[in-house]
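Q: A reviewer asked whether we had any structural model of the full assembly, not just the individual parts. We don't, so I'm hoping you can provide one. Inputs are below.
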Amino acid sequence: MQFSLKPIGHVAADASHEELRHRTAVSKIVIDHKYARGLKDLEGFSHLYVLFLLHKAPKGKGNLMVHPRGRADLEMRGVFATRSPHRPNPIALTLVKLLSRRGRVLTVKGLDAYDGTPVLDLKPYDRHDSTPRPRVPLWWKKLELESKRARRS
Amino acid sequence: MQFSLKPIGHVAADASHEELRHRTAVSKIVIDHKYARGLKDLEGFSHLYVLFLLHKAPKGKGNLMVHPRGRADLEMRGVFATRSPHRPNPIALTLVKLLSRRGRVLTVKGLDAYDGTPVLDLKPYDRHDSTPRPRVPLWWKKLELESKRARRS
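A: Here is a predicted structure for the entire assembly that you could use as a starting point for your response.
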């Protein structure tokens, strides 16, 4: 059983690796002419999910155990307990803030996707997608703290 | 440019259509033996994203304008401003509460997927996925209110 995917557009980003990683980048999403009509009414939402293809993840490298954030010094974790790009189905998901739409070009904040990344879907975000205090494990909290410190320095 | 997807497991649910729709159902996700190792450490998270295939959405019906919730009495909207199953790439995304994991079987609450649905990915949910007061358009609020009333009656 196999299913195929078709990109609906791509990311246009000139932010640095650090800005993308820290979700501070402002990027554009350019939707193909063919799919542009599907964007109607999107501007009513403040936040969107962007599903995009992890097209730079090496093919066939659908690892089941990964080092979080690619850091070989950290204990390996089950891939479904991480957001690693090396997953059986190379699809990433990021919540972004929709700053504006002009025709088939969206300007968004917080997208951690490189320039040229194929976009698969956009979905509106509503209160069902939000949960106030999600529990995460200690090893995840430590990673978060480290990346917060890196952002400050 | 085409990419293919492989299911990593499936949904086992005996809830009613209404329970699934209202996100009150408790369901199981059974991960294939082949991918089971990737579940390690997942139980540290209270909430997960489940990406699943909308395998019952008619093929080739990648509509760009849809009636919200399939209701022909409502104005058509751009598909990317809805969570309609009839989208160019038939991938759904739902936030669920992880109640437990026993080996390769997860018990989750809030999954709006039918019994037998192929699962594509699981991702841990953290604070980056949460935004307190997302703005949604008026037509969306009205739909929400109606469905809340339907739940009560």
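A: Points you may want to mention in the reply: The helical segments of chain B are 17-21, 138-152. The two ends of chain B are 48 Å apart (CA to CA).
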